[in-house]
Design goal:
- The chain has helices spanning about 50-60, 80-85, 100-105, 115-120, 130-135, 175-180, 200-210; strands at about 5-10, 20-25, 35-40, 40-45, 70-75, 90-95, 125, 150-155, 185-195, 215-225, 230-240.
- It has a seven-stranded mixed sheet. It has a four-stranded antiparallel sheet with strand order 1-2-3-4, with no helix packed on it.
- About 20% of the residues lie in helices and about 35% in strands.
- It folds into two domains: about 5-45, no CATH class; about 50-240, Rossmann fold, CATH 3.40.50.150.
- With about 240 residues, the protein is of the alpha/beta class.
- About 40% of the residues are buried.
- The model has no long low-confidence stretch (mean pLDDT about 95).
């Protein structure tokens, strides 16, 4: 093992081999960089977290009320969940992930934000497919309270609405299935979603079939690997 690189864990999952790695790049300072890979595909790096955090801040900024119940779809390295918990209005946060290995990394605090999430009594991990739970409103996201409604649902799983982590996810991005998910939102509930691409007009039109209010926020951040500005998108939708 090099001092500049360590594979912390690698496990099989329903989607393939998933691994957690830690590295240091001296040119970028004396800090650990955590990465998650699925097979040979990079899923997330702690070098680029601005958009994941913006998913929480932008989504919750559009969410009204107090004592909020919120769902985060996709745990990743925990940045969206931690950013959401900074909102003192949140009473309960359910973080849904289909890969138990990822949840265990946080529970065992093999990733830096695991300790923070574990220490916050408002946080709860839910093992399951976000897409299956989203399209089954009779059961819903909370295994303890079937049919429960939420103030906000924040989604960060697929790379974009047209580039999927798993081909089976494609079926979610339809008006019918988005409506099933929206049934799990309260009257003025918010659905927000991250994408690695700039806003896509066909997806905005699709969202507008389900939600009266749809806004696309371009999130800009510096990419040190490419020495230039990068952009992601956060879609924010409000139920009527």
């Amino acid at each position: 093992m090099s001092l500049l690189f360590e594979e912390i864990d690698s496990q099989t999952s329903p989607l393939g081999e998933i691994s957690l790695r830690r590295r240091r790049i001296p040119a970028f300072g004396d800090r650990d960089i955590y990465e998650v890979k699925l097979g040979e595909e990079f899923l997330m790096s702690s070098m680029f977290v601005e958009a994941e955090e913006a998913l929480a801040t932008l989504g919750l900024a559009a969410t009204e009320g107090d004592q909020l119940a919120v769902v985060v779809g996709g745990l990743g390295l925990g940045y969206t969940a931690v950013a959401a918990l900074k909102d003192k209005r949140i009473a309960e946060l359910l973080v849904v992930d289909a890969i138990d290995t990822v949840i265990q990394w946080h529970k065992s605090e093999q990733v830096p934000l695991g300790k923070m999430l574990n220490a916050d009594s408002r946080n709860r991990y839910v093992l399951g497919s976000f897409f299956d739970l989203a399209t089954d409103p009779a059961t819903g996201f909370d295994p303890d309270k079937p049919g429960r409604k939420f103030d906000a649902i924040l989604l960060d799983i697929d790379h974009s609405p047209t580039e999927f982590l798993n081909a089976a996810n494609a079926g979610f991005y339809t008006p019918d299935n988005l409506r099933l998910m929206a049934e799990q939102l309260k009257e003025q509930g918010v659905f927000a979603m991250w994408s690695q691409n700039l806003p896509e007009a066909p997806f905005e039109a699709l969202l507008a079939e389900v939600f009266p209010t749809v806004e696309s926020h371009v999130v800009k951040f510096y990419n040190p690997l490419q020495n230039r500005e990068s952009t992601n998108t956060v879609y924010v939708c409000v139920k009527g």
